[in-house]
Amino acid sequence: MASLQRQFNSTRLQLLQQRKERQKRIDQGELSKFQPNTLFVRESEWKVAPIPACLQDRRVEITGPVDRKMIVNALNSGANVFMADFEDSTSPTWENLIEGQINLYDAVRRQVDFELADGKKYTLDEHTAVLKVRPRGWHLEEKHFLVDGEPASASLFDFGLFFFHNAKVLTVAEQGPFFYLPKLESSREARLWNDVFSIAQDLMRIPRGTIKVTVLIETILAAFEMEEIIYELREHLAGLNAGRWDYIFSIIKKMRRHPDFILPDRSRITMAVPFMQAYAQLLVKTCHKRGAHAIGGMSAFIPSKDEAINTKAFEQVRAGKEREAGFGYDGTWVAHPKLVAVAKEVFDKKLGTNPHQKQVMLKSLVVKEAQLLDIKATDRTITEAGFRTNINVALLYIESWLRGVGAAALYNLMEDAATAEISRAQLWQWVHHEGTTLDDGRPVTEGLYYQTREEEYLKISQGMKDTGHLQQARSILDALVVNELFEDFLTIKAYEYLD
Questions:
Q1: Which helix H or strand E contains 491, and what residues bound it?
Q2: Distance CA 211, CA 444 (A)
Q3: Residue 300 has pLDDT above 90, yes or no
Q4: pLDDT band at 451, cuts 50/70/90?
Q5: Is 379 annotated in the active site?
Q6: From CA 1, how far away is CA 148, in angstroms rounded?
Q7: Residue 269 class from Cβ within 10 Å (0-12 exposed, 13-18 middle, 19+ buried)?
Q8: What is residue 54's DSSP assignment?
Q9: What is the rounded CA–CA span in Å between residue 344 and residue 57?
Q10: pLDDT at 301
């Protein structure tokens, strides 16, 4: 891990600086576009390296944090793949990170079984989901692990620790090691990961190309470089995933200075709106053109005790999965074991006995730059309920995160850092663009934010025995929303509060 840090951290820092410089150009009016200097990549003939047999059928994937109970339940869920997440659904306390690594170490060796104090047992089934691991993004650091006196890259820490302990075992079993890569903004950032993989495999004496990864296309900048990202990782790449929630957040963040990109209530931004549909279909076409899997986005619904709520929600989930299957996706994501059967039913009907549908090439589909940025075609209504929900959810999620819980079940949805980012980013966007109004005509101002935030804070705090973390969450959210400068990630701000 020290070797990886010393060899690659300087490049990581350079790429993060390039992010800042690119943001300045976007603030000044430069919009995203397909890169003219990589036209040869998009127009030449090439494919990704062969994909292992155990990753051919990925029709349903489940994701969640790395606590022991989640790992056992997810591996036993009936999903084809489980993505163990060190990023958006894990609060990066030192205890969470190290216990998560121990849990995965045990899961790889099928010794993760345990029993609760009440006698309830958790045991792995004979057949389990294929394990993938998502390390944290390039923008994050691990302050508890220093190399030459400096905090390590959180990406290299999470990847390196898991890879060192488990790569050889997974290689022998022909079950990995497999990873998900988050938050990439350019193909150069993908190239850095590819270089890391090559050196890591050399250090562990594992053949290059053994690692297989899926990249989340969850930034608007990456959407314009999908083929280039696949190309840089072609020796190691298995697919792309439509990371829809972070993608929405990315549009708000990157276009934050432009009033034409003001988005409506979070609940109104579905995969059916034109700019999201363009992104979703382009991902399928790009993946299949290069022989890679296209994996659909997250269904964040959490089953309720109210069957009427479940019935309506399951219908919405099923409709979303049918849309993805119809677009040509090879699989999809869910956040709860009870949704596995719903998603699998849809993809079983579409795929039958075929492991995927890469034969769907969408050759006639043409997605232009303007379509990916066509926010004006979306209903941009902002309601008081949407405004309040953003404040309420952001407060509750940040409070949960500070307590060490990175995946919070709120209002029958699994909120993680990605969904919370949309809430706080929209609040900043609405407050800082003069002329933004609610649908009842009231202007969205700093004063309206403070008034509504205090009302929601008091509502949440009633009945709480300890409001310490909620008070911290209030301070963090105020700083994120009111400050003139937009913080790129709430988790960086909140990380200062973790021991």
A1: helix 490-495
A2: 48
A3: no
A4: very high
A5: no
A6: 12
A7: buried
A8: G
A9: 11
A10: 86
301 phi, psi to nearest 5 deg: -65, 140
Q: Is the pLDDT of residue 376 over 90?
A: no
The helix (H) or strand (E) run that includes residue 262 is none
* 134 classed as catalytic: yes
Task: Give residues with Cβ within 8 angstroms of 54, minimum separation 6.
Answer: 130, 174, 175
CA angle, 282 then 61 then 309, to 5°: 95
Determine contact, residues 357/351, Cβ cutoff 8 Å: yes
Cα 459 to its chain centre, rounded Å, is 30
Q: Which of 135-139, 293-297, 375-379 has the lowest mean pLDDT?
A: 375-379
Phi, psi angle pair for 296, to nearest 5°: -75, 175
Task: With a cut of 90, say whether residue 377 has pLDDT above it.
Answer: no
Q: Which residues pair with 147 in a beta bridge?
A: 150
Give the pLDDT of residue 320: 94
CA–CA distance, 391 with 397 (Å, rounded to integer): 10
What is the identity of the amino acid at 167? A
β-strands 114-115, 121-122 pairing: antiparallel
Residue 297, pLDDT score: 93
How confident is the model at residue 244, as a pLDDT? Answer: 93
Q: How far is residue 290 from each of residues 53, 209, 235, 251, 283, measured CA to CA in Å?
A: 18, 16, 12, 26, 11
User: Six-digit token pair at 203?
Assistant: 């250090």
User: Distance (Å, rounded) from C-alpha 197 to C-alpha 358?
Assistant: 26
Is 0.90 surpassed by the pTM of this model? yes
Q: Single out the catalytic residue among 12, 136, 416, 424.
A: 416
Rounded-to-integer distance, Cα 126 and Cα 33, Å: 48
What residue ranges define each of the domains in the chain, with the CATH number in brackets?
2-370 (3.20.20.360), 382-495 (1.20.1220.12)
Give yes or no for a contact between 61 and 79, defined as CB atoms under 8 angstroms apart: yes
Average pLDDT over residues 359-368: 96
Burial class of residue 294, CB neighbours in 10 A (0-12, 13-18, 19+): buried
Q: Which two tokens stand for residue 342?
A: 């719903």
For the cut 90, the answer to whether the pLDDT of residue 341 exceeds it is: yes
Per-residue pLDDT reduced to its tens digit, 464-480 = 889 999 999 999 999 99
Tokens 């979306």 correspond to: 378
**Please, what is the average pLDDT of the chain?**
96
- Across the range 32-44, mean pLDDT stands at 94
Distance (Å) of CA 2 to CA 145, 147, 161: 10, 6, 11
Contact call for residues 373 and 385 (beta carbons, < 8 A) = no
Catalytic residue among 58, 68, 134, 136: 134
| Side chain identity at residue 110, one-letter code | R
